[in-house]
Design goal:
The chain is of the alpha+beta class. It has seven helices and 14 strands. The radius of gyration is 18 Å and the shape is globular.
């Protein structure tokens, strides 16, 4: 079992509060999920080589997040879109090649749950995508399956759209229809949109914006005071395996595939 956190915002934003500040932060949860952590940060304006030409910077370690200095440093990272994952190993050894998120081209992917029917996926992943696998997890294989379906539809190199919605919904629906497929909570993003799918594990969504209760300073039930820098026009959606703060998180319905688009603000300070 693992924990997921996805954040999509209208402008580069720091979310230290949900990473380290509260009793249910990823750092706190990593004591139970010790087998690795990973972060994919998207910045559409980042021209550096580390962004690999697609705006993504990927950081991983096969270590407990709370005990890793690099995690503590990155917990204050800024980005328009972030995918975090902390791992508790079920399939595949502990190692960076098996640590989420996984990346291929413009797409990044993180998964929570164990897929039992990996034979279904392997039979439907293209030879090209099979050859790209670097680890031994059911999760990376699941990602390769979704990429294969998008490849076949000619959508892999295109921004997320209603056509992508249909392909993903159909692909996930067919896989999950098999009686013993397993748990398939995942986050998937191309930097313009964030997809979230819930099956077999909990998943929650929180909206923050000018009309929502996203105060710069908040006190959590556990007594921790958290400061989040928040501009006048900023909007954001957070999706996580569990409600991480005392804000109004809403459960995503079981079996749902949700897409959240990033809408940049104009004239924001």
């Amino acid at each position: 079992m693992c924990r997921l956190l996805g954040i999509i915002a209208s402008e580069p934003t720091e979310f230290r509060s949900v990473l380290r500040g509260s009793g249910r932060s990823l750092a706190a949860l990593s004591h139970e999920h010790r087998d690795g952590w990973g972060l994919a940060v998207h910045d559409s304006g980042d021209p550096s080589p580390v962004a690999n030409g697609a705006g993504w910077r990927l950081h991983k370690a096969a270590a407990c997040a709370a005990e890793d200095e690099n995690f503590r440093r990155l917990a204050s990272a800024h980005g328009e879109l972030m995918l975090w994952h902390i791992r508790r190993r079920t399939v595949g050894r502990v190692g960076t090649e098996n640590t989420h998120p996984f990346r291929s081209g413009r797409w990044v992917f993180a998964h929570n749950g164990t897929i039992h029917d990996d034979g279904y996926l392997r039979a439907r992943v293209s030879r090209t995508r099979l050859s790209e696998l670097r680890g031994s997890t059911d999760s990376e294989l699941f990602f390769a399956y979704l990429l294969s379906e998008m490849d076949a539809a000619g959508l892999t190199h295109e921004a997320a759209s209603s056509a992508t919605d249909r392909v993903l919904r159909d692909a996930v629906g067919r896989a999950c229809a098999t009686p013993s497929f397993g748990a398939a909570n995942f986050l998937l993003s191309d930097g313009t949109a964030l997809y979230a799918h819930r099956r077999g594990r909990t998943l929650f969504l929180l909206e923050r914006g000018p009309t929502h209760d996203a105060r710069p300073t908040r006190r959590h039930r556990d007594g921790v005071i958290v400061v989040t820098r928040w501009s006048r026009d900023r909007r954001a959606v957070l999706i996580a395996s569990e409600a991480m703060t005392n804000e109004p998180w809403k459960p995503i319905e079981e079996g749902s595939l949700v897409r959240v688009d990033r809408a940049p603000t104009t004239g924001a300070p």
